[in-house]
Amino acid sequence: MMKREFNQRSTMSRSGFTLIESVMSIIIVSVMFVAAMSMTASSRVNQKLTADHNQGLLLADMLMTEILQEIYIDPQATNTLATELDELTTTRATWNDVDDYNGWSASPPQNKDGTDLPGLAGWERIVTISYVNPNNLTIKTSGANTGVKLIEVTIKKNGRKITTLSTIRTGPKDHVVEDVNPILIDDQTGRIVQVQQALLN
Length: 201
Ligand SMILES: [Ca+2]
Ligand SMILES: [Ca+2]
Known about the structure:
Order of helices and strands: HEEEEEEE
Number of domains: 1
Helix content: 25-40%
Radius of gyration: 30 Å
Strand content: 15-25%
Distance between the termini: 105 Å
Number of strands: 7
Bound molecules: calcium ion
Structural class: alpha+beta
C-alpha cells in the first residue's frame, strides 16, 4: 500500500517536472523567436538605410560632377554667388559657372535640361555654394571672392537627410580657370570620393 502511494507521488512529481520543462521550453523558444525576428527586422532596416545612402551618394555625385565641369567664375560675374542676368533660373540648362548652382534644389531630381530623373519621387537635391577662407577651409565667408568655393550637395528622401557630399573648388580672383583636383567628402561616412579626372575640364 505504501509502495503504491510512493509510486503515485513519484509519477505526479515526474509529470509536474515535465510540465515545468515544457513551459520553460516554450518561453525560451518564444524569446529566441522574438530575438530572431527583431534581428531580421533590424537587418532589413540597415539594408534599406545602406541602399538609400548609396542611392543618395550616386545622385549627389552626378550633380557634383556636373558642377565641377563648369568654370570657377562667370566672365560676366559680379561677386554674387548666383546666376547671371542672361541665365535661366528655372532649369540649369544655361548655367556655366560653379556658383550658378547656389541655392538650387529640385524634387524629384532633374537632368540639366529640366526633365525629371525617373523613379525618384520623394528624393531631393539641394546645392549650396560658399566662399571659404583660403587659410581655413572650414570657415565660410561672405562677400568678396576669396578664390576658394565650398560646394555642398545635400540629398534628402521624403524630407530626411541622406547625405551631403562636399568639395572645394579653387580659382583665382580674376576670370581665368585654374586646374583643380577636387576631393569629395561624404559626410555620413567620412569617405573620400574621388571624381574621375577625365570628367574635369
Ligand atoms: Ca553663370
Ligand atoms: Ca554665377
